[in-house]
Every structure is written in structure tokens, then in C-alpha cells.
Amino acid sequence: MVIPLTGWAMERFGAKRMWIVSLVLFLAGSALCGASWSVQSLIVFRILQGIGGGMIMPIGQSILATAAGPQRMGRVMSLLGVPMLLGPVLGPVLGGLIVDTVSWRWIFYVNIPIGIVAVVLAVRMLPGHERTDASTRLDVRGLVLLSPGLALLVYGLSQAGQGSTPSVVLPMAVGAALIVGFVLHALRSRITPLIEVVLFRNRNFAAASATTFCFGAALFGGMLLLPLYYQVVRGESALSAGLLMAPQGIGAALVMPLSGTLTDRYGAGRIVPAGLLVAILGTVAYTQLGAHTGYTLLAASLFVRGIGFGFVMMPAMAAAYQTLSRDRVPRASTAINIVPRVGGSMGTALMAVVLEHQISVQVHGGGGLSAVSTASPIERAHNAQPLSVAFGNTFWWALGLTAVALVPALLLPRRPMAPEVRPEDDEAVLVE
Q: What would the DSSP string read from start to end of 88-151?
């Protein structure tokens, strides 16, 4: 809900100031979550943590995009992408270790020393002479439409596995209506809207947004299926399932620096489609899952899948910024961060619905995922093969979403950006 505010906040108060504020809010929320005394207090403090955490990524991207310029965008975004893809893999592993060895409260307390270092570095190293505009008006009507609309849509999608119940249909319908209302408002607004919808008229930006939307759906949809397969079918613990997912993050992290350099040299339109083809190749093995599929094959395939993803997400995001002027970067960062999150929510919801349907078809008297997850070891062993087929059939959808992303990826720019001439560069030439 807070992401749409970041573009306006950076223009009004400055990126450095808002970056520090977002870190402080995240730190305060983390400390309070660790000290929470009930589920209700934990939820309230998680909201505070989310207000700060939600702004960190778009503000960070905006600062980097402004500093790097379009000709170095691929390398900068690839470095930023390493924690984005490693986080979902390493998070469950580290979280499991903390919970097993210390206490769940340290899941939150561990953020504090890291966050303090980040604040100190931001105060000392980020440039403070940035332009702000005190006259920039907040798009209140857009905020009332977009933020609740996104929240309701994502909430409804997260509950989609329950079927067509009012708790699913109503939030999705109201959320979609509010988002449509925001788009109509943004096209006619006299003040700068929270998200400049006209950005999507830019071919590069539109193609990059569509690519990251489909990619987000495939990535996070697969992230739902993988640990469930290892836990429900193979009987692995949560920690073991997290470790078995590590090859994807390792593969992505290894190639991301290379993908950034190649994007700057040859253009995202050549790199991203190749990455998607590699990701499709790495997903094929998961469409053929069985009750005893070798872990070596699955790990190798997941590593290949990670390599493919390492050549997709951040190069596509870099392409979105390439043809934009610097004054449009803050609003663009807001939009480009919302798109893959909504795509990820839709992909996760789709995979949940398809998996539930496949379990009901493949497993006799299965009763859905919740029933098979709590089955006895004997029943689980009996249902292992039909459950594997259900997961394999669902992975075809993840593969299909990855293939769909190829269509907009082919529209990404196939040439690198010309070097940008900066004012400080002009001064250096004059001195010489």
C-alpha cells in the first residue's frame, strides 16, 4: 500500500531523506515486532515494519538509476537484483536456523544491527544536495483509489486457493474496480498522479513491465510449488526444503553481474529472451516429477532455472529506465516495483488453484492440499506418486507463464544506450 507514495515522497522531500526515514521505520517496526506480546500487537507492528520496508526497494532503485545513468543501468540493476533473488531462497533457511537455535523474536532483532549500519552509511555517503519541490501536491484521490485497490486485489488473490468464496471474490472485485478507477483518474488528473499511467505508452517501459509481470508470476508461483513438493510429497522438513531450493538463488547470483554487463553492451532485447529460454529448460524436469525423482536432477535443473532468471528480472527492469528522463525516474520506480508484485500474487494464486484442482483429480479422496499435508506417513507414501503427478502438471503452468514472458521480451531494446553526457563530465572536459 505504501509503494505508490514513494514517487511523490521523493520529489517532495528528497530521495536521501526518504531512504533514511524508510530505514528508521523498518528498524522501529522490527524492534517492536521482536518485543511484541500478542498476535494482535505483532500484526500492528508488522504494518509499521511494512510501511518502512515497502519504500526501501523503489527508493533504492531510484537513487541508483539516477546515479548510474542509462548506459550503466544493466550493471547497477544486476547488483541490486542479487539480494532480490537470494532473499526468497536464503530467508527460509536462515529463518529456520534462527527459530531452531535461538528464538522467533530474533527473526526481527537480527535486522537491527544491519539497519543501523545502513542508516549510518546513508547519512555519511548519500549526496544531500538533491532537488526537492515543496509545491508538489499529493494525489489524494489517486492514493484513496490505488493503495486500497492493490491491497484488496493481492489479499483476494492470496485466498484464491479456497475457491469462489465471498472472501475471495469480493476483495478481488473491489480491488480491481478501484485500480480501474485509478487508471481513469490518472489519465484525466490535472496534478501529477501517484503513477504516471502515460509511462506505459513508452514501448520500452511497457515491454519491460509486461515481461516483469509474467516473470514475477512464474518466479513466485514456482516458489510456492517447490517447497510444498519437497515437504508434502517427499516428507522433508521446512529447513531441508529451503536448502533444496538454494540452487536457484545460487545460479541467479552467479550470473547477475555478467547479465548486467551484457545488457549494457548488447541491449536487454538480446539478453532477456535468452534467459527466459534457459529458465524454460530448467523448468522442464519439474513437469515430470515423480515420487522418487532424484535430488541431483532436481538441484541441477533448479540451478539452470536460476541462471535463466538471473538473465531476466533486472535486465528487464534496466530496460524500463533507459529512455526515461531523470525527473521521471521516481514515478517510474514506483510503477516498476508494483508490476512484478501484482504478477507474483497472481501467479501464486493461479498455482494454488491449479494445484488444488490437480490434487482433487489425481488423488482419490484427496480433499485438497490441507488434507494431504496432514495425512499419516502411510497415507502419504500411498499417495506420493499421484501427488507428484499433480505437482508436475501444475508446473506446466509455471513453464507456460515463463514462455508467455517471451512475447514482450522480444520487444525490449536490442541496442545499448549511447553514453550519457553529465554536467560533471562537461566540467572535466573544460578543465582538460
A: HHHHHHHHHHHHHHS-TTHHHHTHHHHHHHHHHHHHHHS-------TTPPP-HHHHHHHHHHHH
Sign of torsion, CA 75 77 83 84?
A: negative
* CB-based contacts of 66, cutoff 8 Å, min separation 6: 15, 326, 329
Nearest C-alpha neighbor of 299 from the set 291, 307, 404: 307
What are the tens digits of pLDDT across the range 63-101? Answer: 877 777 666 766 777 777 667 666 766 777 787 778 778
pLDDT (tens digit, 9 = 90+) per residue, 349-360?
A: 888 888 888 888
- In the structure grid, which three cell numbers stand for residue 305, read together? 532455472
d(CA 271, CA 175): 35
CATH architecture of 3-139+191-423: Up-down Bundle (1.20)
- In whole angstroms, give the CA distance from residue 283 to residue 277: 10
Reported residue count of the chain is 432
- In a 3-state reduction of DSSP, which class is residue 395? helix
- Amino acid residing at 50: G
Residue type, 212: T
Bigger pLDDT: 147 vs 136: 147
Q: How many CB atoms lie within 10 A of CB 236?
A: 17
Closest to 402 in 3D by CA, of 323, 318, 304: 304
Q: Please name which of 227, 219, 150 lies closest in space to residue 181, comparing C-alpha atoms.
A: 150
Degrees to nearest 5, angle at CA 241 with 239 and 246: 95
DSSP class per residue in 224-274 = HHHHHIIIIIT---HHHHHHHTHHHHHHHHHHHHHHHHHHHHH-HHHHHHH
The model's pLDDT over 121-135, given as tens digits with 9 standing for 90+, comes to: 999 888 876 676 666
Give the residue extent of every domain in the chain.
3-139+191-423, 140-190
Which residue spans within 5-162 are E strands per DSSP? none
Single out the residue of 278, 213, 16 nearest to residue 131, CA to CA: 16
CB 220 within 8 A of CB 309: no
Tell me how many degrees the CA angle 27-31-37 measures, rounded to the nearest 5.
150
Find cell 486485489 and name the residue: 153
- Rounded to 10°, the helix 39-68/329-362 angle is 130
Across 54-138, the runs of DSSP E, i.e. the strands, are none
Which three cell numbers, joined as nine digits, stand for 389?
503427478
Task: Give CA–CA dist 230/288, Å, rounded.
Answer: 14
Dihedral sign, CA of 105, 110, 115, 116? positive
**8 Å CB contact between 426 and 246:** no
